[in-house]
Amino acid sequence: MDIKDQQKYIILSMALMVIYFIGFAVIVLRLTIKYFIKYLNLKLKLHISNFNIEWLTFVLLLLINPFIIYNQTFLVIYALIWILQLKTMKSPILDMILIPMIISPFLLHWYQEISWLSLVVVPIFAVGLRYVFIPTILLASILPMFNLLPYLTSIILDIEAFISLYDVKVYFVQLKGFMWVIYFGLLIFISASKTYKVFYKRLGMYVVICMISFLYTFKPLTDQVIFLDVGQGDSAVIFKDNHVVVVDAYKNVSSFLKYHYVYQIDYLILTHTDTDHVLEAATLIENFDVKYVVLNAYDTYNIKHPNIIYIGEDNLKVENDIGIVFFGPMIDFNDTNDNSIVFKINVLEKDFLFTGDIGVKAEQRYVSDYGNLLKSDILKSPHHGSKTSSSTLLLNTVLPKIVVVSVGPFNIYQLPDEEIISKYEKSGLYIHQTKDLGALLFIYDTMKNFPP
Q1: Which residue in 38, 37, 21, 20 sits closest to 29, CA to CA?
Q2: Domain chopping of the chain, boundaries
Q3: pLDDT digit string (tens) for 302-353?
Q4: Threshold 0.70, pTM exceeds
Q5: Which single residue of 71, 133, 186, 344 has CA 20 to 30 Å from 418?
């Protein structure tokens, strides 16, 4: 190599270092180190192989920042590098097959689902990253007037929009713990094939395992009720008799449902219109097959769906497959909180009473109209433990053993109110505050919490 080659690598290293400090951290830092090693390799005639240069780059990255090992981009890059480097047969076709296989578990980890069209596009993006994206970054750093990054970003966004319109997303079993080692051991085993015949035989084994993983996601759901930890808001999910009920949707519902391989929501119950109960509703309707949306009849929701059930004075006895009993709203209380849907459901031989954000006035009406029918084992604390709710009359009628207070830490409303917590304690209730104890899961005959 002549002096021009040496200059090329040192210039690239310097340019990439500048870019590293303004963004594109992990990818650019790796390339900076790699090109600098290449420069030293040529300058000092060290005769270091490309494979060993990658190893040196890897080690130096860890020495510079040991915590980079937790960076998702770092893990993806080196999973790609090592497996493609270790493969016995050098072929672009094999690369196109292996790249989606390498990236798939990371996509599952990030999004809990796999996009078929994305897997086709990924190898193309991998080529584009090397031959288009990186050169574009370099050009922008050296000659800002020729910055093509906005145009390139626009093209990528257009491709992403196209994928979102026509893509099919499916679930596979997500890798946990030692499963990651087994999976990538299998990929190394496949990439080490010495002939195409052996490669395709091993690939066939991989496909069979993927099919089993895919079919496993259709197993029946285990009956359970979970009050999600969503901060200052409400979200709960009920699985009963292989049906899915979502009660309010502030946030975290999508990720929970995807984690359990759920495609369909049978009932999306939105107790009232406050943002801390409906923020994620539109996302759920867009991304899941929602059969019915259940709304109260007296509020105006910004919700569009072909099958809406309105709960009100003339529609309290709603037929459903899982024994949901709707109590109200039985009248228009002329208050958004009091107009919340109130219902009871029996799961795992326990009665759960959901009350939205009703206040004392509505509580008195429910006790007057229904009395002992409200009796339940678990009470979702009305209005996040506000002093405007949880009257002694309601507690003495419902007689719950457990009260769940869905509330965020350091919230501006200073909820739950100390007076209400004291009232719960005097009633001998087990109090579960999500801000302290996280999500609360009822499954089988046990109760589990997941600390925040």
Answers
A1: 20
A2: 3-216, 224-450
A3: 999 999 999 999 888 888 889 999 999 999 999 999 999 999 999 999 999 9
A4: yes
A5: 344
